[in-house]
């Protein structure tokens, strides 16, 4: 029984919630509880969660240690909201973040607490890059997604999302991501030629902003060589290099940061989603100290720095990043996921796998087929969504903490749906 037909709820969401709602249209039930990688609806049915809040729940739903710390914080009347004032929760988070994340990676970045979403961090990064360089133009990439507010949206490629702006989206030049023109096209060389040609019509950039793996854009994964090349180009041009690690970071597509071991350190790193550890609103911008030229309150927001999120984020760092065990286990799960998805792609004519780490999926070659596969998965107890320019990629974003048996169960559901529907498609085509 869907939420539209359940007695007492008929028409409630359609009557009162904005037409902007989206995920609930694909999953028309009412969820009442969740634990790690399983969500339960109001009828008592369990679903394996391969969406995880679009990588907001890398540590799963309701981690017991984070939950206990948050309850203790609230029960002790500790600070819930403090603008950007000093609080014990903030200092504990900063000390832990410095000790476990920044220092081991030899990163001396300052931490700027922005408004509570990833788009807020992107807006701050774009604004700061323009302030530091005195330039206006920012280079973003085809299929990129950076948020829905006006500045972030200007860097977003998707026509459907850009169409909602209602005003010109300016100040950004979109360049081809690696592989955008086929595997043999050297898009880095093309960019270098554009910037070396004084008649190219492309203004000198304030910054390049890039995702190492494009989450909403279809799980396109850039190579370390291409990314380090873009970083070097930015440095040569006097531009800042921004890595948007909002969806690909915090263990999803590599180490804590998705760019670790690639031979470069970004000037700015945007963070959000799983930064809080358990789905609380929390975003930040990491800034090389020499670029931290903000004047007091020059960029602020009422909800910059969420004290409840400071608490859960600190626990997440201590629990999962004080040694290499979590990262090692995530790599093993990523290898298993890659093998299973290759087997699934093999049963769908023309399909191919994409992504990196635990941020992978299958390009089904058709948005219609991908949508039908996801709908069939939901009917059989799996929450999974699509991405890509034509919604052609079935995307797996399971919690990194998902038990092996639940990961296998979810993939079994996906494999059965892909096999059945691709076979049906083939018969229909004949």
UniProtKB/TrEMBL annotation:
<dbReference type="InterPro" id="IPR015421">
    <property type="entry name" value="PyrdxlP-dep_Trfase_major"/>
</dbReference>
<dbReference type="InterPro" id="IPR005814">
    <property type="entry name" value="Aminotrans_3"/>
</dbReference>
<dbReference type="GO" id="GO:0019491">
    <property type="term" value="P:ectoine biosynthetic process"/>
</dbReference>
<dbReference type="InterPro" id="IPR012773">
    <property type="entry name" value="Ectoine_EctB"/>
</dbReference>
<keyword id="KW-0032">Aminotransferase</keyword>
<dbReference type="InterPro" id="IPR004637">
    <property type="entry name" value="Dat"/>
</dbReference>
<comment type="similarity">
    <text>Belongs to the class-III pyridoxal-phosphate-dependent aminotransferase family.</text>
</comment>
<dbReference type="GO" id="GO:0047307">
    <property type="term" value="F:diaminobutyrate-pyruvate transaminase activity"/>
</dbReference>
<dbReference type="InterPro" id="IPR049704">
    <property type="entry name" value="Aminotrans_3_PPA_site"/>
</dbReference>
<keyword id="KW-0808">Transferase</keyword>
<keyword id="KW-0663">Pyridoxal phosphate</keyword>
<protein>
    <recommendedName>
        <fullName>Diaminobutyrate--2-oxoglutarate transaminase</fullName>
        <ecNumber>2.6.1.76</ecNumber>
    </recommendedName>
</protein>
<dbReference type="InterPro" id="IPR015422">
    <property type="entry name" value="PyrdxlP-dep_Trfase_small"/>
</dbReference>
<dbReference type="GO" id="GO:0030170">
    <property type="term" value="F:pyridoxal phosphate binding"/>
</dbReference>
<dbReference type="Pfam" id="PF00202">
    <property type="entry name" value="Aminotran_3"/>
</dbReference>
<dbReference type="InterPro" id="IPR015424">
    <property type="entry name" value="PyrdxlP-dep_Trfase"/>
</dbReference>
<dbReference type="GO" id="GO:0045303">
    <property type="term" value="F:diaminobutyrate-2-oxoglutarate transaminase activity"/>
</dbReference>
<comment type="pathway">
    <text>Amine and polyamine biosynthesis; ectoine biosynthesis; L-ectoine from L-aspartate 4-semialdehyde: step 1/3.</text>
</comment>
């Amino acid at each position: 029984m869907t939420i539209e037909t359940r007695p007492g709820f008929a028409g409630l969401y359609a009557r009162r919630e904005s037409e902007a709602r989206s995920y609930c249209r694909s999953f028309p039930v009412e969820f009442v509880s969740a634990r790690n990688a399983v969500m339960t609806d109001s009828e008592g049915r369990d679903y394996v969660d391969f969406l995880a809040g679009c990588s907001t729940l890398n540590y799963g739903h309701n981690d017991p240690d984070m939950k206990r710390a948050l309850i203790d914080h609230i029960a002790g009347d500790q600070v819930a909201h403090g603008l950007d004032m000093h609080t014990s929760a903030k200092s504990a988070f900063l000390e832990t973040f410095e000790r476990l994340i920044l220092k081991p990676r030899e990163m001396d970045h300052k931490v700027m607490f922005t408004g509570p979403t990833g788009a807020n961090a992107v807006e701050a990064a774009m604004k700061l890059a323009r302030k530091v360089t005195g330039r206006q133009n920012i280079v973003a990439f085809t299929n990129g997604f950076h948020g829905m507010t006006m500045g972030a949206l200007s860097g977003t490629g998707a026509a459907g999302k850009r169409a909602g702006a209602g005003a010109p989206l300016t100040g950004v030049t979109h360049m081809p991501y690696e592989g955008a023109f086929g595997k043999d096209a050297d898009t880095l060389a093309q960019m270098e030629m554009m910037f070396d040609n004084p008649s190219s019509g492309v203004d000198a950039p304030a910054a390049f902003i890039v995702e190492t793996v494009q989450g909403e854009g279809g799980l396109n994964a850039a190579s370390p060589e291409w990314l380090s090349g873009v970083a070097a180009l930015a440095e040569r041009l006097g531009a800042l290099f921004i890595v948007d690690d909002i969806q690909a970071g915090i263990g999803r597509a590599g180490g804590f940061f998705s760019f670790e071991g690639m031979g470069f350190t970004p000037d700015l790193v945007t963070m959000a989603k799983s930064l809080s550890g358990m789905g609380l609103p929390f975003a930040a911008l990491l800034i090389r100290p020499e670029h931290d030229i903000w004047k007091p309150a020059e960029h602020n927001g009422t909800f910059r720095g969420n004290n409840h999120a400071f608490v859960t984020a600190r626990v997440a760092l201590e629990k999962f990043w004080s040694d290499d065990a979590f990262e090692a286990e995530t790599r093993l799960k990523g290898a298993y996921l890659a093998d299973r998805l290759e087997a699934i792609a093999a049963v769908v004519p023309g399909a191919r796998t994409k992504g990196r780490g635990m941020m992978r999926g299958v390009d089904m070659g058709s948005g219609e087929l991908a949508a039908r596969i996801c709908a069939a998965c939901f009917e059989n107890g799996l929450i999974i969504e699509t991405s890509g320019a034509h919604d052609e990629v079935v995307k797996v974003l399971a919690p990194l903490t998902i038990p092996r048996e639940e990961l296998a169960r979810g993939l079994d559901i996906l494999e059965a749906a892909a096999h059945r529907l691709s076979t049906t498609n083939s018969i229909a085509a004949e």
